[in-house]
Design goal:
CATH topology of the largest domain: Isopropylmalate Dehydrogenase
Largest sheet: 10 strands, mixed
Bound molecules: adenosine-5'-triphosphate
Structural class: alpha/beta
Strand content: 15-25%
Number of domains: 2
Radius of gyration: 20 Å
CATH architecture of the largest domain: 3-Layer(aba) Sandwich
Number of strands: 12
CATH class of the largest domain: Alpha Beta
Length: 339
C-alpha cells in the first residue's frame, strides 16, 4: 500500500534528524510519497509567516505528518507554531512512549512508561494579563470536554496496547476545582474500562516515585503542564531527549515528532542524536498500518544503540554515522519478498 505524508523539516537540528528518519523509513521499503512543506524559520524568511496556509492544507490532505522541532521567536508577535498546529488540527493528545534502550547509559533500567499529555488547555491556553503594576495573572483552563477526551484516549490506548494500568497525575489537593474536574472525568471514563487498573497520584510524589521506582508506572495521564514536565523527567530516566519519540494525535490527523526541541547549540554540526526522530518515524509507520516495518525500525535502533552512541549519550558517533548504521541494520532485517 502506498502512503502520502507531509514532511516538516523544522529548525535547528530538525533537518538533520528528520533527514535521518526519512532515510531509515525508506530503507524499510514501505511506499511513502513525502510532501515537504516550508514551516518555521524557513517559511518566515520566504513568506513572512512561520505557519503558512499550505502547511495546514497539506496535513489536512494527507492526514499524517512527520515533523522536526520548530523554534518560536520570543517577542516577535507570533504564537508558538507547535501550539498553533495542535489547535488548528485538533491534535489533543500528546503520546510519548518512553522505553529503556539496551546499553544506553541511563539512571534506570527496563523503564516502559507511556505519557499521555493533554495538548490543548491548562496553562497553555495562553491567557495571561497584568492586573496592576507588578501583578500578573496566568489562567489555568480545564474543561470537562477536553479532560474526558484525553482520559478516553489514555484508556483506549491502554486497552488497544494491552497495558495494565492508567495513573492520573494531578495536584487536586491545591487546585481543587481545576485538577478536581480533571480527576472526575478520568474516574468516570475509568469505570468503562474494568480490565485496565486506575490510580491517582499527586504530581510531586509521582515525580519522586518515577525516579525511585519507575516500574510502578504504566500509562500516565496528565494535563498539559504536568505532562510537559513529567515527560522530560521520563526521558531523563531512559537517556535523555535524544532517544524519546512522540506523536500529536487527534480524531482526524496525526503529527509525529520527537520530544526534543531545536537544540540550537548543536544544530548543523552533525552531532544530534537522530534516534528520537527515527523512533517517531516508527510510531508513524505503525499508525499508517505498517507494523512489520515499524517493528523493524525499532529493532534496528535497539541493535545499533548497544554499541554506538552520539555525543549526548557520551559517545563519539555523528548523526550521519548513527543514521547509516541504523539504515544498514533495517536493510539486514528486511524480510525477503513475500513476507
Ligand atoms: P527549544 O528552544 O526548541 O526547546 P532547546 O535547546 O531549548 O530548544 P531542547 O532542544 O529540547 O531544548 O533540548 C535541550 C538540550 O538537550 C539541547 O540544547 C541539546 O544540547 C540537548 N538535545 C536535545 N535534543 C537532542 C538530540 N536529538 N541530540 C543531542 N542532543 C540533544
Amino acid at each position: 500500500m502506498s502512503h502520502r505524508v507531509t514532511l516538516l523539516y523544522g529548525d535547528g537540528i530538525g533537518p538533520e534528524v528528520i533527514d535521518a528518519a526519512v532515510r531509515v523509513i525508506e530503507a524499510t521499503g514501505v511506499d511513502i510519497t513525502w510532501e515537504a512543506v516550508d514551516a518555521g524559520q524557513v517559511a518566515l524568511q520566504k513568506v513572512g509567516v512561520p505557519l503558512p496556509p499550505p502547511v495546514l492544507d497539506s496535513i489536512r490532505r494527507n492526514r499524517v505528518a512527520l515533523k522536526g522541532p520548530m523554534m518560536t521567536p520570543i517577542a516577535e508577535g507570533f504564537p508558538s507554531i507547535n501550539v498553533a498546529l495542535r489547535k488548528e488540527l485538533g491534535l489533543y493528545a500528546n503520546l510519548r512512549p518512553t522505553k529503556s534502550l539496551p546499553g544506553v547509559p541511563a539512571p534506570a533500567r527496563d523503564v516502559d512508561v507511556v505519557v499521555v499529555r493533554e495538548n490543548t488547555e491548562s496553562l497553555y491556553a495562553g491567557i495571561e494579563h497584568t492586573v496592576s503594576r507588578g501583578v500578573v495573572e496566568s489562567v489555568k483552563v480545564i474543561t470537562e470536554e477536553a479532560s474526558t477526551r484525553i482520559a478516553r484516549f489514555a484508556f483506549e490506548y491502554a486497552r488497544r496496547e494491552g497495558r495494565r494500568k492508567v495513573t492520573a497525575i494531578h495536584k487536586a489537593n491545591i487546585m481543587k476545582l481545576s485538577d478536581g474536574l480533571f480527576l472526575d472525568c478520568a474516574r468516570r471514563i475509568a469505570r468503562e474500562y474494568p480490565e485496565v487498573a486506575y490510580e491517582e497520584k499527586l504530581v510531586d510524589s509521582a515525580c519522586m516515585q518515577l525516579v525511585l521506582s519507575p516500574h510502578l508506572f504504566d500509562v500516565l495521564l496528565l494535563e498539559n503542564l504536568y505532562g510537559d514536565i513529567v515527560s522530560d523527567l521520563c526521558a531523563g530516566l531512559v537517556g535523555g531527549l535524544g532517544v524519546v519519540p512522540g506523536a500529536n494525535l487527534g480524531d482526524e490527523y496525526a503529527v509525529f515528532e520527537a520530544v526534543h526541541g531545536t537544540a540550537p547549540d548543536i544544530a548543523g554540526r552533525n552531532l544530534a542524536n537522530p534516534v528520537a526522530a527515527i523512533l517517531s518515524g516508527a510510531l508513524m509507520l505503525a499508525h499508517l498500518g505498517e507494523p512489520a516495518a515499524s517493528r523493524r525500525v525499532v529493532d534496528a535502533v535497539r541493535h545499533v544503540i548497544q554499541s554506538m552512541w552520539t555525543k549526548d549519550l557520551g559517545g563519539t558517533a555523528t548523526t550521519a554515522e548513527m543514521r547509516d548504521a541504523i539504515i544498514a541494520q533495517v536493510s539486514a532485517l528486511r524480510a525477503p519478498k513475500g513476507e
